Please model this.
Amino acid sequence: MMVKRNSLIFLTAFGLLLTGCGKSGLEITKDDILEVARDDANATKSECENVSIKEQKGSYMVSFNTNGGSYEYKIGKDGIIKERSFKRGAKEETAETEKVEEPVKEEKSTTTKKEEKSSTSFDEGQQQAINAVLANSGLEQSDVSNITCSLDSNTNQYTVTFVLNDVTTTATVDAATFTVISTILG
Model:
C-alpha cells in the first residue's frame, strides 16, 4: 500500500511538472515536497527525524536528519530541487552545499576536468545513463570530474559516479528506461 501511495505522489508531481503547475490548477503540497526531498536523499519516512518544512519566497525549505547525517533542501513550488545540503553525522562542522540550478564553476578545475574527460570515452548506453544522472542533478558533464559508468548485467542497471566540489556522487540508473533509481552523496 505504501509503495502505491509513494508512486502515486511521484507520478502526480512528475505529471504536474510536465503539464505546468499553474495551468493545471493543481498544487503540490508540503507532503509532496517532503517526498521529493526524501526520494533525493534515498531515505524512507521512518528513517527521517526532526522534519521541518517552511515556506519562503516561492520555495520550500525542507530539513531532516537520518542515521547518515542531516539534509537541507530548497525546493521550488514546482517540485524542482534548487539547492541541497548534506552534513554527514551529527558532529560534522562543514556541510557540502550544492546549488542545483546554477552550479558554481572554478576556472582552474574546469581545465583539469576537460583534460580528464578527453581520455575517457563511453558507449551510447553509458552516455545516456550519465546524461540522465547529470540532468537529474541539474548539472552538465563539464561541471563534474572523474566520471565512471559501468553496467551490472545481473540487475540491468548502470552505476554512474562523479566528483563535484570534492564530493563523490554515486547514482544507479535503470538500463532499460534510463531512469535514475537512486543517488548517494559521499
Notes: The longest helix spans residues 2-19.
